[in-house]
Design a protein that fits this description.
The complex is a heterodimer of chains A (218) and B (232).
Chain A lengths: L16 H4 L2 E3 L3 H16 L4 H11 L4 H25 L4 H27 L9 E3 L5 H22 L6 H24 L19 H5 L6
Antiparallel strand pairs in A: 1-2
Chain B lengths: L14 H8 L4 H6 L3 H5 L1 H10 L2 H7 L1 H6 L5 H4 L1 H26 L4 H27 L17 H22 L6 H24 L16 H8 L5
Helix pairs in contact in B: 8-9, 8-10, 9-11, 10-11
Classes of the chains: A mainly alpha (218), B mainly alpha (232).
Chain lengths: 218, 232
């Protein structure tokens, strides 16, 4: 079975080619949505992630545990990105200190979400395995930027479906941190800290889901 | 339903701010923090305020305004009230940045970031006004702000404080919002305020994540108390 995020979509002309080779292997619904979110982000840009996630979660029935498991899968990825990949690459300077600080915070998110799922009587999903394509500091930071910004879009897409006020507050408290990470990484690599200007949402809610679905192998 | 208020009486949608300005109980205490040092220790201040008696004001803040005016209930409770509260904060942020830009204290990359943030706050103002109108409410009036603008360092520190306050204010309302559309708008703005705060954190060499891995919310009474010194 292939773990590829994208099937035969060429990488030329992708909005975020960094995401195209990132692999998430896992058969859970959450892994599937994460693959889809990344495919949406890779092909159509991060603005496509929000509506994709919101619709994909709505289709699952939208329970809070389901949403939290998706968030957990995303946090597993971010945590591995900094704490595993970040240590494989000889990072230096600001990149190194960001990776260490952000990695710790993503690991805290994993723990907190796991606990929340358990307190709701749910079962936290298993961690998928990831193949993270970054072999240099610059590739690492480019991917960090895309991942953090994807995280913001994903949380913003998921949050309106959350039923419990407490869970919503927790998600809000985490997305704010992802946004802070995203801004800091973007500044570091000379990108705008506010890539979507005043609103972290797509400008137009296009038919993302129908476009993205054929690109994903379940 | 109720007849519109006449033009010469106080504009109804400013209920929150009016109430705030009238309520002088804690004014002196809050004015203290308008000074530079006060702004820097805002986190500690918020914690102190949270633990204090002001918590009670929180739940009742809107009530006196409603009782003393003919404002429809929807203007002081629910999504319209939350949107107008956010709008009030955005008006102040917009004015603050406009004054900072006009001060010419910054140049180069920092100046362009500040200008960009200011124009984003302006888009927030427009979006929130639109959202209030769409829900059948009346957008809050633009309050007049006053901001200490002395030096680049002081202004950057104040901007960092203001943006962190804004982010925590949005976070504090997320659970109170009823409409999914309003929530989506608030979230879309919330993460941008967070981006501003983190960017300013890098400029003033302060933490990008002052609350650690989990951002803390601020309730309406804390935020309104904190902005009091900036209302002319």
């Amino acid at each position: 079975m292939s773990n590829h995020t994208l099937t035969d979509a060429g990488q030329a002309g992708l909005a975020n080619p960094e995401l195209a080779n990132l692999e998430v292997s896992g058969l859970t619904r959450s892994s599937f949505i994460l693959r889809g979110a990344m495919a949406a982000g890779a092909v159509y840009g991060l603005g496509a992630v929000t509506p994709f996630v919101s619709q994909a979660l709505a289709e699952t029935g939208g329970g809070d545990v389901e949403i939290l498991n998706f968030a957990l899968t995303l946090e597993y990825l971010e945590s591995d990105f900094y704490n595993v990949k970040g240590k494989e690459i000889a990072l230096n300077g600001q990149a190194k200190s960001y990776a260490s600080m952000f990695g710790e915070q993503e690991a805290d998110h994993v723990k907190a979400i796991t606990k929340t799922i358990e307190s709701l009587g749910g079962k936290p999903v298993a961690k998928p395995s990831f193949v993270i394509p970054a072999n240099s500091q610059s590739a690492f930071l480019a991917l960090a930027s895309v991942l953090e910004n994807t995280g913001v879009s994903a949380y913003n897409g998921a949050a309106p479906s959350i039923q419990s006020k407490e869970v919503l507050a927790a998600a809000g408290s985490i997305v704010q941190i992802e946004a802070r990470h995203a801004a800091a990484i973007n500044l570091l690599i000379g990108k705008s800290p506010t890539p979507s200007q005043g609103f972290d949402v797509p400008l137009a809610k296009e038919q993302v889901l129908t476009k993205v679905k054929p690109l994903i192998k379940a | 339903m109720s007849s519109p208020t006449s033009e010469d009486s106080a504009p109804q949608p400013t209920g929150i701010v009016e109430h705030l300005v009238r309520d002088d109980v804690d004014r002196k205490r809050f004015l203290k923090m308008a000074g530079g040092a006060g702004a820097a220790s805002f986190g500690a201040f918020v914690l102190a305020a949270c633990g204090g008696s002001s918590t009670k004001t929180a739940s009742t803040a809107a009530a006196p305004a409603a009782a003393t005016s003919t404002t429809a209930a929807s203007a002081t409770t629910g999504d319209v009230a939350i949107l107008n509260y956010a709008l009030t904060l955005e008006y102040l942020e917009r004015e603050f940045y406009a004054k900072v830009v006009a001060s010419g204290l910054f140049n180069g990359k920092v100046a362009s970031l500040i200008k960009e943030f200011g124009s984003q706050e302006a888009t927030h103002v427009e979006a929130l006004k639109g959202a209030v109108s769409k829900m059948g409410g009346t957008p809050a009036a633009n309050p007049n702000g006053k901001f200490p603008i002395e030096s680049a360092t002081q202004v950057a520190a104040l901007a960092y404080t203001v943006e962190n306050l804004g982010a925590s204010a949005y976070l504090g309302q997320a659970g109170n919002i009823q409409s999914p559309e309003v929530l989506a708008t608030a979230l879309a703005i919330h993460s941008v305020e967070a981006r501003h705060a983190a960017t300013l954190g890098t400029l003033v060499k302060k933490s990008l994540t002052p609350d650690g891995a989990f951002a803390k919310p601020a309730d309406m009474s804390m935020v309104l108390a904190a902005i009091k010194p900036f209302l002319a």
